[in-house]
Structures are given as structure tokens and as C-alpha cells.
Design brief:
The chain is mostly helical. Helix 15 runs antiparallel to helix 16 and helix 24 runs parallel beside helix 26.
Length: about 775
């Protein structure tokens, strides 16, 4: 193609039509493959636009095509180093198709570097001779593929560092406390996301045992030898030796490879189902033996220990049930997991270890084995808690130093994690044997919640105090859930529950609830721990409301009268404060998302605009970070609203007193202003719609009305039905002078009349009924015309 004609293709790279840009890139790819050396001037002029399309174009298909063209230019050495980096780090892009296209570019880039290194070192045979590998060691023997793994790790770490410098590392721990402490498994990292597409493309990534051998190998090299041959071997070994960041990256890649290897579906066409099943069993057994060795080497560092622990989640434990003679391998694995649980105080490591223990306990044949390990972990945790109880005043904020808080917080965190795995009632209710610590663990934990009562000390100390309180709240919540689970079984079977046991339960519940109220009432700003305490208080009353259902279903009101009386209701005087907390989180979300809220009604408190604007906190943040903050604010709003809605539905809040119905009206004030997620949450306040929302079925009233409408024309003759269909709207004409009755105060009709809710369209079932009637009428008209 003539250069004068070629420039028109370059100009069309900026065309507004995506299909045009894509077709131009397709043609440029063909032209460049035939000989790009003669087009240097054209490439230099339009290459920046090409890289811009690959990294920023709005259409994914256009970006994919641009990455392919960029790879062609890279092979011919016509990309600048910064342009290679810009395309290479697209393996971390949010779009899957872009990541897959970038994986091809990345693979070719690493392969080119590998060829250069191999030629510089004298070829494959020279490298293997210098490494001195042995066939007896198998995948743990040094081999030429390790150079490929080293270059792979180098590029992944380099590109990840560039993305982190450009966008910032996503800070998952700045989310609300409620979300942080309830998340069992850390979210996927950039490297693990990239590893999923590299797995499909690169052979050394698919071979997870080769990665394990490289990671387990001792790469330390002796520097005592002075011979020339030895120096050459030393240079090659130093070349393949990974640093700490590369080892962490390769562990992420290996974890992704293991997960994909064990989750591959059986392909009956390529191999027999039995053979594939045996291969997966063998993989599971090998991985179970590999994880303890990896923990021995990388378990000291929390950043790598949590990655290795995550590999256990991929194990299919049915293998150990079927091959009982090999269950000793899994027992050894559980021992190593327990060691990591006792060894670390890092919450991510504890979360991963807890998830592994929960995974093991899900299988019946491993339940007893897992429970024996849990018993030892419980003993260590409770003993540590009692040691603090003996020597410190752990129920008052500000009485502990930062060092003591740093030591106590992981202990309480471990208890909260263990409580989530299995029934913990017996352990949590066990009385102490020492006079210095006689109370049960749950009483100690409930008293720790009182540390949430705010007293200004120091910002660093306050952060440690709030973290400790959050773990204590979580542990108490799990205790009450397990306790009521036992009570449910007891009531369903008609068994007795002693009055002393009920009194003790009410005592602990009273301490816990009072301390929650102290925590949320003592704070002025809407911080994380205040939100978490508010939600936990609602959860407690909602949980205990189940006692009402169980005792009524048992049909023995006298026998379980004391249990039924313990349901209770949130103190009506607390409702205004709960509404003020909701006001704060609602305004925060509205400011971040630039939403305009409805004005309060005459009987509601006016809007307080004196609080600091959240926009000041977002200054200097990137677009992505602002979006993350918006999502966090929406999640906090919807979570709090959901807890209020459940408590209202269970009739444990907003039911009696001078403020009855006020919280419901406040939740509905901005139902149409805060997005669809919030609207869906508060829609459950309409009891008539709960069945339709939860189960996709119509209410009884709407079903009866629809059936009556369908039955009426069916009982008539076709011609008569046509006449009646035409005049059906005139059978009962509405009197324009008739006054409508006043709707009940607080009902949805009353809120719509006061313009606190938008006018609602006809119900879907009514529309369906009208469509049915219209269809019947049209068919009957055709019948009449035909006659």
C-alpha cells in the first residue's frame, strides 16, 4: 500500500465509530505482518494513538485488536520500553477479554526474554549442566524451565508495581469494621486475577508442581569456590534465584493454578471419567502433602502464609474419605494449619486458617478429627484470655497500654474465629477455676464490649480499642446464635430448660446489650464501630424474636413462658438516636453520589447541615478511589437499613411508645432517591409484597382478584362476553363527588398522599389480568367478524 493511502488508515484510528476503528486495526495487523520495517515513519506517527486505544478505548473488542497489533510491533522492536510496559500490565485489567489478549502479549514478551537469556548463557544444555539437576529429585531438581519461571516472576512483579504506583494498592482494610470482620476470605489480588488468564496460555503456570519445586528449593549459593567453572555455575544459579517479592507472586500464581487444576470439569470425550477422577485424587493427595512443606518455609511471614493457607480451600476432601489409609496426610495438614493459627495474630492469616478448618469440618468423616484440633485451639485461646482477665481490668476503656491492646486483640479475634466454625456454647459458658477469673468466657467478652464507650485518649489507642471491641462483639454474636440454635432443638423436642439457665442467658444478654447501647450512644460521629454496634443491637433483638415462633409452635405456652418473655423490644426512647445514626449515613451517601433528598415531614426533625462534608475527604483521590468510597457508603447504608427492616418485621422495634412507626416512615422518606439497591431493601416493609419479593409469588388478595377477573368472562357466551368486556368499566361508575376515606396513619397510602413515597403503578398481576382480558376481547372480536 502506498504511504499516501496508508495515512488514511492512521487517521481513521480516531474515528468515532468503534467498528471502523476495529476494521482499521485488523487491516493494519495484516500490513504490519508482511513487512513493517518500511513503514517506520507511519508507525512513529500513529504508534501513540495505537497504544492509547489498547489501554483506554471504550470498546473492549477494539482494545483487543489494538493489543494484537501492538504485539506485532513489539516483535519487530518498534515499541518503546514504556509502551511495552503499558500493554504488558493490561494482564491486570478489569476486562476479561483484555486480560486474555494481554496474556498472549505477556507470554510472547517473556518468551523473547527467555530466548535472549538462553542464548547469552550458551544454550539449554549449558544451563542444565550448570544447574546440575538430578532426575531422582523430579520437579524439585534444578532445570532449565526454572529460568522461564524466574523471568515470569520478574515481569509480573514489575508490572504489578507499576499498577500499584499508578492506581494505588486497593486498601481492603479501610472498609467498615462490620464488613472487614465478617469477611472470611480475602478478596482476589491483581496477581491472582492475572494468573487465571496466564494459566490458559503458559505451560509453566499450568504445571503447579514445577512451581512448587522451584519455590521449595534452597536457592542459597556458596561463594567460597573460585574456579572458573564454578563461577559460571554460580552466576547461573544467582540468575534464577527469586527475591522475596517474586516468591510471593509465584505463590499467588501457584494458588490460582492449583484451584484451576482441581476445578476442571471432566472431559469424557478426551479421557475417561474414571481416569480424570483418579488424576484429581492424585493431585489432591500431592497438594495435601505439599502445603505443610510450603508452610514450613513461608509460614513465618503473614503475607505468604495466608497465600499458602488459601490453597487448602481447593482440596476436594472426598478424596480423604474414600482413601482412608491416606487420611494421615490430611491430619498432618491440619496440624500445620493449627500451628499457623496459634503462631500468628494477623487477621488475614487467622481468617484463612479458620476457613480451612471450616472446610475440613464440613465433611462427616473428618469432623471428629477437626474437632480434636479445635479443642486444642480453644484451650490455648481461653487460657490467654483468662491470663489478661487475671492481671488487667479489661472492661474499662483506657486502662490498657497500646502494647497490651496489641496482645489482647489477636486473642479475642481468635476466639471470634473459632466461634464461627462449630458450636461453642460449652466452651463459652465454662466457669473459671481461678478466683482471679471466675466468670465464663462469654461474660468476659461481653464486658470487653463496654470498652466501646467512647473516652477520648489518643488516636492510635482509640483505633486499637475499637478493633478489640469489634472482635468481642463478633464473638458474642456467634455465641448467641449457637445458643439459640440449641434452644430451638430443645423446644422442638419438648425438652425442659432450667430456670437458672434462662436467667443466666438473660443476664449475659443484658450485659451485652447494655454495652452495645453505651457504645453507640457515647459517640457523636458516625464511625465504623458505632455502625457495627447499632447493627449488632438490631441483630440481637431480631435473633431472640425467633423464641416467640418456636414456643408458639410447640403449643406449650406455660412450659416455655419464661423463654417467650425474653424476646423483648428495643427501648422506644432509643429510636430517635437510631434515626439520627441513619440520618448521618444517609447524608454521607447522598453527598458522595450527588443525590438530592426529600425534605423532612412536619413531624420529623429538620436536616442538620452542620456536619463536615464528605467531599473534603475525597479531595486528591483518583476516580477509582472515589467510586470505591461511593460503594462503601452505599453498602453501609443498605446494611443498616436492612437490619432496621428485619427488626421492624419481627416487631422488636418501632412498635410501641410515642415514637411508634417513626423509624418506618424515616426509612421510606427517600425510598426513590437513594438508588435501586436501597429501594429493594426498604420494599420489604410492605408486608403485602414480601411473598412476591422473597418467593416470586403473588399475595392471596391479588391471586383472588386475578382469578375472579379470569373467571368472569369464561362463564359467558363469546358474543355476550364481548359486550360485557366493552362495557365492563361502566358497570360501576365512580362517583366524582364521593369522598375517599382517610388512609391509616403511617401506611404506604398515607405516605404517598403526603408525597413521601412516589405514586405506585398498578400491580404486575393486574397488568397481566388486563392483558388477558384484552387478548380475550381481540380473539372474540375476530370470532364475531368471522361469523
Amino acid at each position: 500500500m502506498e504511504p499516501g493511502h496508508l495515512r488514511y488508515l492512521g487517521w481513521m484510528l480516531s474515528d468515532v465509530v468503534a467498528s471502523t476503528r476495529q476494521e482499521v486495526l485488523k487491516q493494519l495487523g495484516r500490513i504490519f505482518k508482511t513487512g513493517v520495517e518500511q513503514l517506520g515513519h507511519f508507525v512513529d506517527r500513529f504508534r501513540p494513538r495505537l497504544i492509547e486505544i489498547a489501554t483506554k478505548d471504550a470498546e473492549v473488542s477494539v482494545r483487543v485488536a489494538a493489543i494484537g497489533v501492538a504485539d506485532t510491533l513489539r516483535k519487530d522492536g518498534m515499541l518503546e520500553p514504556d509502551e511495552v510496559d503499558a500493554v504488558g500490565r493490561l494482564i491486570f485489567d478489569s476486562e476479561l477479554r483484555v486480560r486474555k489478549a494481554a496474556a498472549t502479549f505477556f507470554d510472547n514478551l517473556v518468551s523473547a526474554s527467555l530466548d535472549d537469556q538462553r542464548n547469552a548463557l550458551g544454550g539449554k544444555d549449558a544451563i542444565e549442566e550448570a544447574l546440575g539437576g538430578s532426575d531422582e529429585l523430579g520437579y524439585e531438581s534444578p532445570q532449565e524451565e526454572w529460568l522461564h519461571i524466574k523471568l515470569l516472576a520478574e515481569n509480573i512483579v514489575a508490572f504489578d508495581a507499576q499498577v500499584e504506583n499508578e492506581l494505588g494498592s486497593p486498601d481492603f482494610h479501610d472498609a467498615s469494621v462490620a464488613a472487614d470482620i465478617m469477611r472470611a476470605v480475602a478478596p482476589a489480588t491483581r496477581i491472582s486475577v492475572a494468573a487465571h488468564v496466564l494459566y490458559e496460555r503458559i505451560q509453566v503456570v499450568r504445571d503447579w508442581k514445577l512451581l512448587a519445586g522451584y519455590l521449595l528449593y534452597d536457592h542459597t549459593v556458596s561463594s567460597k569456590s573460585k574456579s572458573k567453572a564454578k563461577n559460571s555455575q554460580t552466576a547461573i544459579k544467582n540468575l534464577i534465584r527469586p527475591d522475596d517479592s517474586e516468591e510471593a507472586a509465584l505463590l499467588e500464581v501457584m494458588a490460582a493454578a492449583v484451584t484451576l487444576a482441581l476445578s476442571q470439569p471432566v472431559d469424557a470425550k478426551r479421557s475417561g471419567r474414571h481416569e480424570n477422577s483418579e488424576a484429581q485424587e492424585e493431585t489432591a493427595l500431592e497438594l495435601a502433602a505439599m502445603i505443610p512443606r510450603l508452610l514450613n518455609k513461608f509460614g513465618a511471614d503473614p503475607s505468604t502464609a495466608k497465600i499458602v493457607l488459601r490453597m487448602e480451600h481447593a482440596l476436594k476432601l472426598d478424596v480423604f474419605q474414600q482413601l482412608r489409609q491416606d487420611s494421615s496426610r490430611y491430619e498432618h495438614l491440619l496440624d500445620e494449619i493449627s500451628i499457623q493459627f496459634n503462631r500468628h495474630g494477623d487477621k488475614d492469616v487467622l481468617a484463612e486458617a479458620t476457613a480451612a478448618l471450616s472446610h475440613a469440618r464440613q465433611h462427616d468423616e473428618l469432623e471428629e478429627l477437626t474437632d480434636s484440633k479445635l479443642a486444642l485451639l480453644w484451650e490455648n485461646a481461653i487460657n490467654s484470655l483468662r491470663n489478661f482477665d487475671k492481671t488487667c481490668e479489661i472492661g474499662e476503656r483506657g486502662d490498657l497500654t497500646a502494647e497490651h491492646l496489641t496482645d489482647l486483640s489477636p486473642v479475642v479475634n481468635k476466639i471470634s474465629n473459632l466461634a464461627s466454625v462449630a458450636d461453642c456454647v460449652d466452651v463459652m459458658e465454662a466457669e473459671g477455676r481461678s478466683a482471679d477469673s471466675e466468670g465464663s468466657p462469654v461474660e468476659i467478652l461481653a464486658s470487653i464490649v463496654n470498652r466501646g464507650t467512647f473516652v477520648a485518649i489518643d488516636d492510635d489507642i482509640d483505633e486499637l480499642e475499637d478493633e478489640l471491641v469489634s472482635w468481642a462483639i463478633k464473638a458474642c454474636q456467634f455465641y448467641f446464635m449457637w445458643k439459640l440454635h440449641r434452644i430451638e432443638k430443645l423446644v422442638r423436642t419438648g425438652s425442659d430448660m432450667s430456670s437458672e439457665e434462662v436467667d443466666q442467658l438473660q443476664k449475659v444478654r443484658g450485659i451485652f446489650q447494655d454495652n452495645l447501647i453505651n457504645t453507640l450512644s457515647s459517640r457523636v460521629i458516625i464511625d465504623d464501630i458505632r455502625l457495627y454496634a447499632t447493627g449488632s443491637l438490631c441483630d440481637m433483638f431480631t435473633l431472640f424474636a425467633s423464641l416467640r415462633d418456636w414456643t408458639e409452635a410447640a403449643g406449650k405456652p406455660t412450659k416455655y413462658k419464661k423463654l417467650a418473655n425474653s424476646v423483648g423490644e428495643v427501648v422506644p426512647a432509643l429510636v430517635p438516636e437510631l434515626i439520627s445514626i441513619f440520618d448521618g449515613i444517609e447524608r454521607s451517601y447522598a453527598r458522595r453520589t450527588k443525590r438530592v433528598l426529600n425534605e423532612p415531614a412536619d413531624d420529623e426533625d429538620p436536616i442538620d447541615d452542620d456536619e463536615s462534608d464528605d467531599e473534603d475527604e475525597d479531595e486528591g483521590l483518583t476516580k477509582e478511589q472515589r467510586f470505591v468510597n461511593e460503594l462503601k457508603a452505599e453498602r453501609s447504608l443498605c446494611e443498616l437499613a436492612a437490619k432496621f427492616v428485619m427488626a421492624i418485621a419481627r416487631q422488636v422495634i418501632d412498635k410501641s411508645g410515642p415514637n411508634a412507626g417513626r423509624l418506618r416512615r424515616r426509612l421510606l422518606r427517600n425510598q426513590s432517591k437513594l438508588g435501586k439497591n436501597y429501594a429493594e431493601v426498604v420494599a420489604y416493609l410492605d408486608e403485602a409484597k414480601v411473598d412476591a419479593l422473597l418467593y416470586g409469588r403473588k399475595s392471596k388478595a391479588s391471586k383472588t382478584a386475578a382469578a375472579a377477573k379470569k373467571a368472569a368472562p369464561a362463564s359467558k357466551k363469546p358474543t355476550a362476553a364481548l359486550s360485557e368486556e366493552i362495557v365492563v368499566d361502566d358497570e360501576e361508575p365512580e362517583d366524582p363527588f364521593e369522598e375517599e376515606p382517610e388512609p391509616e396513619e403511617g401506611s404506604r397510602e398515607d405516605l404517598r398522599r403526603r408525597e413521601l413515597l412516589p405514586a405506585e403503578d398498578d400491580e404486575p398481576e393486574d397488568e397481566e389480568g388486563e392483558d388477558d382480558r384484552s387478548a380475550n376481547a381481540e380473539s372474540e372480536v375476530d370470532s364475531v367478524l368471522g361469523d
